[in-house]
Design brief:
Helix content: 25-40%
Shape: globular
CATH class: Alpha Beta
Largest sheet: 2 strands, antiparallel
Strand content: 15-25%
Strand order of the largest sheet: 1-2
CATH architecture: 2-Layer Sandwich
Number of strands: 4
């Protein structure tokens, strides 16, 4: 799993900030099935998502990640219909290109 986390951080740092419409991604580990993970990628709109999915750079990153998986991932596309964030939501760190570890300051 560490190799996948490292690749995800590399992606966010090196490429994620330059992808049109890219918002964030989250990786969850199943409590019911330890060792099973869910990656959720969020884009501003479907067009940005599809353009990224069709890019040779994304295909190359997928192939690097796939090399660390026991089997092919299951793809589930969908649309966010509601999102809310509490005050403990970390702020974006522009230096690293990732979510920070400290909650965002209240405005």
């Amino acid at each position: 799993m560490q190799a996948l986390l490292d690749l995800s951080k590399e992606y966010d740092r090196d490429r994620g900030r330059r992808i049109k419409g890219y918002v964030a991604d989250y990786i969850f580990e199943s409590e019911k099935h330890p060792g099973e993970y869910l990656l959720v990628a969020i884009f501003q709109d479907r067009e940005s998502y599809m353009a990224n999915a069709a890019s040779p750079e994304q295909d190359a990153m997928y192939r690097r990640m796939r090399a660390h998986l026991a089997e092919d991932p299951v793809w589930e596309d969908g649309e966010i219909i509601l999102a809310s964030h509490g005050p403990a939501m970390p702020a974006w760190d522009d230096t690293s290109g990732m979510m920070g570890t400290e909650p965002a300051s209240p405005e």
